[in-house]
Amino acid sequence: MKDDLASKLKMLRESNNWSKTDVQRRLNLKTLSTYANWEYGLRSPDNEMLAKIAELYDVSTDYLLGVTSKPTSVERNQEEEEFLKAISNPELKRWFIDLSKSDESDLEKLRTMWNLIKGEQEGGRKK
């Protein structure tokens, strides 16, 4: 189980493009070796720290411990699933990233335009 946890810690860290130092800081650990030893499989975090790691990576503790192969134990609601499906499209993902960097005035213009488009698609009526 230690090796499974160690490999998951490494995979999760690398998938976020974080260094071990980044994770150490995010978990408020005093020394880098504490985290490194978990990732090397030499030691294991206690339950409290395991919960913090799960929160940091947005996965379940069951996933970290190898109880389940699914990263999240809670079923995602339909809206989250639709969003994840939408951003799997590279074109939509690019738009989402651009939108997240926009200022509020640009977002308001986009909302207005989107409402107009949706209104036209619904026979010219606004919701």
What about the largest sheet? Answer: none
User: Which stretches are poorly predicted, pLDDT < 50 over at least 5 residues?
Assistant: none
**CATH topology (fold) name of the largest domain:** 434 Repressor (Amino-terminal Domain)
Tell me, rounded to a whole number, the average pLDDT.
84
Tally of helical runs: 8
The CATH H-level superfamily of the largest domain is lambda repressor-like DNA-binding domains
Q: How much strand?
A: under 5%
Q: Gap between N and C termini, in Å?
A: 54 Å
Looking at the overall shape, the CATH architecture of the largest domain is Orthogonal Bundle
| Rounded radius of gyration (Å) | 21 Å
Give the number of DSSP strands: 0
Fraction of residues in helices?
55-70%
Helix/strand/pairing category: mainly alpha
The CATH first-level class of the largest domain comes to: Mainly Alpha
H-E string: HHHHHHHH
Principal-axis shape: elongated
Number of domains: 2
Give a description of the structure.
By secondary structure, this protein is mainly alpha-helical. It folds into 2 domains: 2-65, 434 Repressor (Amino-terminal Domain) (Orthogonal Bundle); 78-121, no CATH class. Helices cover 66% and strands 0% of the residues. It has 8 helices and no strands. It has helices spanning 2-15, 20-26, 32-39, 47-57, 61-65, 78-87, 90-100, 104-121. Helix 2 crosses helix 3 (32-39). The chain is elongated. The model has no long low-confidence stretch (mean pLDDT 84).
Write the layout of secondary structure elements.
Blueprint: H1 2-15, H2 20-26, H3 32-39, H4 47-57, H5 61-65, H6 78-87, H7 90-100, H8 104-121
Helix pairs in contact: 2-3
